[in-house]
Please model this.
Amino acid sequence: MIRSLLKLGLLLLVGILFYNYFFGTEVEKTQSKEIFGKVRDVSKDAWGLLKSEKSKLDEGKYDGAVDKVGSTVESLGSLLGKLRTTAKDLNDSGALNRLNELQAQQRELETQLKNEDPATYDAKEQAEVKSKIQSLLKETEQLMLDMEKEQ
Model:
């Protein structure tokens, strides 16, 4: 029920934006163009960041170098922040809830890495951290795909 209302609200919002983009006053057209530009910019930046981090992970850049994971986790935090802005612009509460969960996981991982010396990790701990990062990247990618479908 709530999900249907949210989808209807999002559809209404997108409909208003499109209407204003084509048939609105100059101020409304400018506002709509600005919103579409922001969504496009955030989507491009997010995809670029996600793809580069995923390719680095696939190439094994982080194998045996878990101490560098902190920057990846921080970059992912930045990406999640940008996605949050987009979700707020679109009034997508489902995406905001999922972002809350992902940001909680990201902060937990970041705290873990700050409190422990990654250089002392054994192979099992390194694999565990790598698995957590991959999982977080996949969930973020799925959220981005879902948000893109709803646009």
